Amino acid sequence: MAECIFEKITARKFRRSSMPPELKQNIRNSIGVKVNKSEPITFAVPIGGYKKRELACAPYVDWSEFFTLAYMYKFAAPILAVYAPGVAIEYVSNEIDMEILGNYTREELKAYTDTFKQLLSYFKKSFPVNFKIIYREMREQFAPGEYVECLEEARPDLDSLLKKWNELSKNEQKSKIAKAERNYKFSSDEEKLSDNEKYEILKRITLTHDMYVNPIWLGFLSKKNYIRNDNKIPISYYHGNWGLHLGSCSASTVQFWVGTGVLEQRGERIIPQILSYKQLQAVKDKIHPESVDSLIDMPNFAKIGVVRC
Questions:
Q1: Is the pLDDT of residue 236 over 70?
Q2: Residue 40 domain-assigned (yes or no)
Q3: Residue 55, Cα to own-chain centre: how many angstroms?
Q4: Pair 244, 23: CB distance under 8 Å
Q5: Is residue 216 part of a domain?
Q6: 267 — pLDDT class (breaks 50, 70, 90)
Q7: C-beta of residue 86 within 8 angstroms of C-beta of residue 128
């Protein structure tokens, strides 16, 4: 049974990149423990926990979250069909980080959290009994003040990260700065700064982000049962060696919280698609909003954009 489940989890139909041997073994180990205990196969999906503010749908969820939830059920269905204890998928929101890394307000982050949970409640009505999706916030794992205390303990590592930064190639630095720029919102005062001053802010944000993967911080998170504990299988939306690389929907690998959901019409085919802000700008003249007779009484679900190729 364990090997059968492994084959279904790692099916090329869903997986978007190759897996190193260590990851394969970790997944097999997690499955084996769960099967021996007759417990649900559990996946952990770390997410941003916010909606990219440049998108018109922000700060609320939209069709991209809808497509993702539907896709995850499709991913789990082959396992549910052969393994009675079923599947549990935990979305773990890093929204607390975005107050630091993205300058998002607590109100913006709460709006996203609340609407994600509301959307999930619609899905739960039709899920089989052996399938569960859980949404939880990382901040819930910490006692008051504990998060900041751990950050302070890890912060001295910024000095070594700055040294590593200076050793990076110009292209590597540019890529990291571009990522920070996608996520960070300059305050009204920061908008008045020079390009060089803005660059230094983005570099600080980049170094702070990299600090989160140092041993002190990861050790602390592992004690919190955050991602890897309890034999959870991590899911990632980008290629790496730490988690199973899946698409965010059948036709996209864009992280759904920084994208928007549309339908792409290719001849007679209609394909759910998640577009990044940059991709959205490139096809905005081809998008036609269509009314939807939806049972989802929430912002952003009365209409959907259709891209006619």
A1: yes
A2: yes
A3: 16
A4: yes
A5: no
A6: confident
A7: yes
pLDDT digits (tens, 9 = 90+) for 153-185: 766 566 777 888 989 999 999 999 988 887 788
- pLDDT, one tens digit per residue, over 273-306 is 999 999 999 999 999 999 998 789 999 999 999 9
Closest CA to 273 of 292, 242, 248: 248
In a domain, 219, yes or no: no
Q: Is 153 helix (H, G, I), strand (E, B) or coil?
A: helix
Token couple for 39: 């417990």
Residue 40: cis peptide before it, omega within 30 degrees of 0: no
| C-beta neighbour count of 4 within 10 angstroms | 14
What does the block give as tokens for 208?
Answer: 């702070």
| Global model pTM greater than 0.85 | yes
Q: Percent of the chain beyond pLDDT 90?
A: 66
Cα separation, 41 vs 199, whole angstroms: 44
Question: In which domain, by residue range, is 74 found?
Answer: 2-142+224-308
Span 180-196, average pLDDT: 88
Residue 107 CB contacts under 8 Å (≥ 6 apart), including other chains: 59
Contact 208, 101 (CB under 8 A): yes
The count of domains in the chain is 1
Give the pLDDT confidence score for residue 228 in this predicted structure: 62
Q: In what order do the strands lie in the sheet with 244-245?
A: 131-137, 87-93, 41-47, 233-236, 244-245
The answer as to whether 179 is a domain residue is: no
199: part of which helix (H) or strand (E)?
A: helix 195-211
Give the max Cα distance, the chain. Answer: 61
Q: Which of 283, 279, 280, 258 is CA-nearest to residue 180?
A: 258
